Structure formats: C-alpha cells, structure tokens
Amino acid sequence: MGVELATDRAGFHEMEEVNFSDSELVYHVRHALQSVPLGDSDSYDQLIGVLHHKERLAPDEVALLVTSLKALSGAVSCIDMVHHKSLLSSIFGMSLWNYGPDVMDALLELILSLAASSGNYLDCSLDMLVSNFMPPYSFLDLLKQPRGLTRKDQVLSRVHSTLKDIADLVPLAPSRLVPIVIQRMPNVFTKEPLIMIYVENMLRLEGGAIRELVGNMMLVALMDRLVDLDVEIAWEEVLQDDCSKGIFEMELEDMEEPADDVENDGGELHRGSLSRKSLGGNLIAEKLDSLMVLTFEHLESCEAGGRLIEVFETLVLSFQTTVLNAFKSKFAQFVMFYACALDPENCGVRFARMLADFFVCSTFPPLNRMSAVAYLASYLSRGKFLTASFVANILERLVVWCLEYCKIHDGDINPKAHRVFYSGCQAIMYVLCFRMRSMMNVPHLRSQLLLLPLETILKHPLSPLKVCLPSIVEEFLRQAKAARLFTVSETFIFSDLLESELSRAFGGIERLDMFFPFDPCLLKKCDRFTFLAFRLHNFFRNANLL
Amino acid sequence: MPNKENRKCHNPLLIQSITTDKFNEIFDGVVLAYDVDIPSKDAKILPGIHPYFGVRLKAKLLLFSPKPNMLIEGKVVKLAQESIHIVVLGFSSAIITDEEIRGEFKYKIKHGEGVFVSRSHKRHVIKVGTMIRFLVKSLDEEILHISGSLNPPHTGNILWLDKNLEDASPSSRSTKKRRENGESREMQEHDTVDGGVFSLDNSHQIKKSKKRKISEES
C-alpha cells in the first residue's frame, strides 16, 4: 500500500511526493526515532506534530495520521522511554472520541503493540484505554445526538475489544487493569453523564470477554461507589421531622399504579410522594438513582444470561463488608432487593438466610447483628416475591433464637444489655404485622404460627413488649388479638406513641430501633423498577380486620 | 520441570493447579505447584502479640523461573513482520522483535496470514498457533513478560526441531529448585526449561486456574 502525501502538509522531508511501501515507512519512522539520541530530532518532531492534529481533519490529514500511526506500530521496538518521552505522552494523550474509525483502528493497533512489547508501556496503555471510557467534556452535548451515539459505540466497542486483545497477548494484563479502572472512577461530584458512561464501561467489563478475571472487582467497586453516593445524602432529606404519623399509616389506597408526584401533606412514608422536602433537586440523589437503574438493568441481563447467581454471590459479599459493617444504607440495599426479586428461589432465599445467619452468630458485634435483623425484618415484610412458608421458616428461626436467649437470661428489663434480643423480638413482631393475616389463612402455616412460643418470649421478664417500638407493639397486639394468636392481660396504652424512651435506649445512637431499610424507595426511577416486587400494607388503624 | 525419566513427584498430594500468577521474590519464581510433607505433627508455640503455632514442613516446589540464556517454549499468539508474540504456560507473555529473529527466517504472507519460513528448510514454518522454542534474554518480573530471541541455531518450531535435528534439542531435563527447611539447593543440570511440556503422564495433567488451557505440545 502506497501513500501519496501533499507537499504543503507537514510530513517527513524525505517523503514528499513519493509512494512508500509499508516496510519503507516503518524504516523511516525507525530511523527518525533512532536519530533522536544522536541529536537529530527533526523528523521525530514532525511526527509528533502529525499526532497533534485533531480538529476537523481533512481526508489527506487523516491519511497521514493513519499512516504515521501504522508505521509507529511497526517501530515500537525502537521507541525508548527516555528519549521519546514527548512522543509517548502524545500517543497516550490521544482521545479516540476525536477521530473517525480509521484513525481509531490505527491508534489502537499502536496501543496494542506498545502494551505487548514491554512491561514499561503496559500500564500506560491500559490507562489510556480506561481514560477513553469517557469522552472529552466538549463532547458531552454531542452524546445526546445520534451522531454522538454512533461515535460512542465506535469508541467503546473498540476499547473493549482492544482490552481483550491485550489480555490475549499478555495474560496478566487484566489484573493490572483492575486497579487502574478503580482509581480512575469519577468521584461523586462529577457530572452525571460522565459517571453514567464510566459505570456503563465497568458493567461492560463485568459481563464481557475478560469478565472472569475482572468482573468481581468491577461489581465491588460499583457497590462501593453507590454507597459513597448514599452517604452523601443526608438522613434529614430522607425522613421528615414530623413523626406524628405512625409507621403503619396507610401507605397507599391504590396499589396498582406507581403514584408519581402524588400531592400529600406530610406523611413521609407515603409512596411516590416526593414531598416538599423532596430529593427532587438533590443532584447526588439523582446520580444515585440513575446509577442504580443502570445496575438493575445489568442485573436483568445477568439473569437473562443465567449468571445472576454467581454475580449475586459477589453482591452478598460486598453487602456484608460494606453495608452491613459500616452504616445504615438508605438506598443502596435496593440493588440486593432487585436481584432477589429477579430470582426469588435462589437469590431471594440466599439473602434472607445470610441475614439470619448473621443475626444468630454471636461472634459478630451487636450493632452489626441488630442491623442485620433490621434488614431481615424489613426484607421479609416487603418482599412480595417471598413465599409465606419461607417467611414462616425464617421467623421460626428467629423465635428459636429468642427463646434460647430467654432461657439463658433471667434478668429484668435492660434495653442496653439485651438490645440484640429486643431487636430480634421487634423484628418478629414487625414481620408478623405484615404477614400474619396471609399466614393465618393457610392452614399449615396457621398451625406453624400457633405453635410458636411467642407467649413465652413476649411475656418474659425481659419484657420486650415494653421495650420495643410502641407503634409496632401496638399494631402487633391488635392483629394478634384479632387472629387469636396471642393476647395479653395487661393493657398496653401507648397513646399513639411512635417511640418511647426504652425503645430509644435499645436502639442506641444509631437508632436501630427505627431502621426499616426496605421501606418504599424514594428514588423515583428505582421505585418504578422495584414497586412490582414490593409489598405495601394497607391496614387501617382502627379497623378490626381479621 | 520434572523430566520424563527422572520423576520425583509421585506424591498424590501434588496440587495440580497454578496457585498464583505472581512472581515470588522469596522463591525467585512463580510457584506452579507444591508438594508438602509434614514430618511431624508436633507444633511449637511461637511467642508474640498474637500466638501462632509453628509446624515444620518440607515442600517441593515447581517453579517457573526463566533466566537469561535459558531456552523456553511457548505458543505463538500473534505474528507480524516486526515481532512475534508468545504466551508461555498460559500466564506469561513473551515478545521476540525482528532484530532477534535470525536471518534464516523470512517473513511471508501465506493464505492471508503472516508466517516466518526458514530460507534453508522450507518446512520449518512459524505461524500463529505454533509451539516454538526460543532463548530468554530478559524477564520483567512484575508482569512476567519475557524478552526473547530466535537468534541461536536450535530455536524455532519445536516439532520441526525435534524431528529434524540429529543432536536433538536439549532433553527435557530441567532446572529444579528445592527448598528444604529453609535451605535452598539449586540443581542446574541443563539450562533448559520446558515451558510447554510438563505433563509427565496423563494423570498429572496440570490444569490452569481461571479456566485457561495449558498450551500443549501439538
């Protein structure tokens, strides 16, 4: 293949108006490179000049660029880290987004050659590819246009196939890639479209050709980022100060439609209503919302590909180390919820069992155990996809644990000392508030329920009925009485109290007595995904329902 | 590598997987497999902030430790006029640049793909998929990347070499390192490392982790 070059274009002195073969071009480039340490940088500088052309290239400029890149690919063994610093930095600084497919292919061929030639260039090559996950700022507006989307597809498909090609030539490359991807992740304050496109690439790696080597870390890093965003959203924005409405206020009359922007006065837990103190204007919340939707869609494709179970294992581990260990997550846990909803028999069951295991294991710190059982209780109550009998079995496990605890401990009320116990009791009562009625309607579940030693536990001197959240206790007692499951001789009058001093005491600073992590998600876009899997309650305060 | 005539690793405990892809500084190589023998179950309590039990053991290690001027074998994964790219044992990469390919070999395009053909022996061909034997010039320990050479005379397509050279390729005797109770004894009988052939018999097929197949002698 010969190339004609226009005389008035920057090029090699020797190459004006001459046709050259590929190997001759490579020879010239090698010569240019080898001349640099000898003091002659003219051809070398011209070569760098060619690489810097990027704005609106005319066809012959494109041809020149392509030729130069291809010639460089053949001369990689002559490129020296010390003498050719500026050339290397020009190459690694090029953004694929600025060019058409011809230049992209030639540039990527060069990157591949560099990566495979020496350990010196491997990390830089990978870094260059990862930095091409995102377009330059100037390109952001174009992304919304069809032209921009085409370019995006051209760039990203090539970037990922080059990553695979590098992995084929250098098997250890993927392990070098992971820290680079993680380090280059945009922080929480980056513009949303850029974060989105970067995460898209991470998910593409998770599901792509080299997924066995990098997939896990991509997911873990993504979950960490979701948690980072979650932390940035203040609890005050999520909960309203006015807590006069109880936990069991009627949530929604019409359960069929997701209620968009339903006007409501107060009632922080009314679904779909982003009340005045809403998250609507919160940029961080919007980013989190969009990212979670991206994650949900990825989970769907994993499920379709039969991979959800292995992906879920990574999510569970990540959940245990980050979410369960660290803090009260506001929204990130819905990733788990959605995965469970996609595959209730495997993931759904696994999640509940993991949480139950965590709760009963005495080697874990008390706060983590309380957190785990709070997640469990909220999950069992809200997960519409969980069968009543499965819920009953998990409940039984909690009851057995509480019973054992009662037998060992003689003492009296002590919210702090027995806080794990109280959180377990509250969990049981909370779940029964949601599930009791449906369970009582199924004969074998009814008998299972009736056989539970609830009386022994709840009437024990440790007095969970006095310590647990009054609103939960009250609702539970009301339902239990109506179902003839359980009655107390003492009248518990709570005067519509949501919480009490004792409940605050057992909940501690973290207020784990008031933690219902799977309450309706206030992120609009996420909510649309999860609502179908979501169980709402519609029991009325004063009605006497069986 | 254990050679065919001189097998020492009969122990069924031999872990047949590549345990790590990292170059181990202590052992000066990548540990491919190990065979552990615990002579006594008596343990010592080692003092410290966290008490540990110390148990003495002997281990035989299978090490991948290419050194300059060793001959090594691997599979060609990419071939161009300027360079040949090779993968050794499925986890180590190697490159041979055109300056290191002896003049005997000429680059040609045959049936749409690039090949190197010997000028003196038309049947001696190197192309993508070929197992070749080459010389180690240097090793980048961090990414296990070898810089190699096809300059020496007995390098090239292994199949062809083994069939056609009277003073046959140095046999698969190998460099072994043994570590016994902290001592190290280097036994260097020949300076060859069988990169591609190390299955002793069918029952000892070493499998790679991460589901990559070992390059087998074709």
From TrEMBL, chain A:
GO BP annotation list: transcription initiation at RNA polymerase I promoter
Stated name of the protein: RNA polymerase I-specific transcription initiation factor RRN3
Any one GO molecular function term: RNA polymerase I core binding
PANTHER family xref list: RNA POLYMERASE I-SPECIFIC TRANSCRIPTION INITIATION FACTOR RRN3-RELATED, TRANSCRIPTION INITIATION FACTOR IA RRN3
Gene source species: Vitis rotundifolia
The family this protein is said to belong to: Belongs to the RRN3 family.
Gene Ontology cellular component list: nucleus
Annotated InterPro entries: RNA_pol_I_trans_ini_fac_RRN3 (IPR007991)
Automatic annotation (TrEMBL), chain B:
Keyword DNA-binding among UniProt keywords: no
Record field: compositional bias (Basic residues): 205-218
Domain of life, source organism: Eukaryota
Keyword Amino-acid biosynthesis appears in the UniProt entry: no
Biased composition, class Basic and acidic residues, residue ranges: 180-193
Gene Ontology terms describing biological process: DNA-templated transcription initiation; transcription elongation by RNA polymerase I
Keywords, alphabetical: DNA-directed RNA polymerase, Nucleus, Transcription
Localization, UniProt: Nucleus
Cellular component per GO, a single term: RNA polymerase I complex
Entries under Gene3D superfamilies matching the protein: 2.40.50.1060
Region (Disordered): 167-218
Job description of the protein: DNA-dependent RNA polymerase which catalyzes the transcription of DNA into RNA using the four ribonucleoside triphosphates as substrates.
Name of protein: DNA-directed RNA polymerase subunit
Organism: Vitis rotundifolia (Muscadine grape)
